[in-house]
Amino acid sequence: TPSSGFKAAKHEMAFKGKTVDSKTVLLNLLLCLLIFYSLFYMIGSVCFGAFRLDHFDGLIPFDFKTEPAESNSKYLVNLLSLELTYFCSGILFAAVVKRRVWDYALTVTLLHVMITSLVTSLLILCVAFSTGSGLFLMICNGQLIAYFTCQSEQSYATFSYY
Predict the structure, then answer these.
(1) Predicted TM-score (pTM) of this structure
(2) I need a surface site. Which of 6, 48, 80, 109 has the fewest CB within 10 A?
(3) DSSP state, residue 157
């Protein structure tokens, strides 16, 4: 039908342009991630030095627990590092990918949010695991010591009583 030919021609026009293979896209994405996190750490270390903070922690891209206040230097360093990283990343992304910078910027940002959530979850999981295993050790050791030291006492219940 004539209308279907018109739709096909219209459809072809919408996708005119040079397509990029997925290997190139993945390589560009990895380069953009490397640029983003390298810049984050470099800018973060310069800002930590400029603000003369005592301790530079490696979790700067993932630190969102610092109290947001204008008087908190660590918060200002984290915020300034983040904003400068985004600004400089945009310039370097343009040099690497040459087009569709917005796509890579959005993807890197979404991956950063996911990585931050994962790191935070892993930290919470590690704290929960270490606390849980510490609790288990405390209970077992305490019970064993109480059992062996208080075995002669009549008031101490034995394991068979439980």
Answers:
(1) 0.65
(2) 6
(3) P
Amino acid at 144: L
Q: Which structure tokens are listed for 55?
A: 């301790």
Q: Where are the domains of the chain?
A: 19-149
Contacts of 72 (CB under 8 A, 6+ apart): 66
pLDDT tens per residue, range 79-133:
888 888 889 888 898 888 888 888 889 999 889 888 888 877 776 776 677 677 7
Written as six digits, the tokens of 114 are: 């996911």
81 conformational bin, left if phi > 0, alpha if psi -120 to 50, beta if neither: alpha
Report residue 43: phi and psi, to 5°: -65, -40
The amino acid that residue 73 corresponds to is S
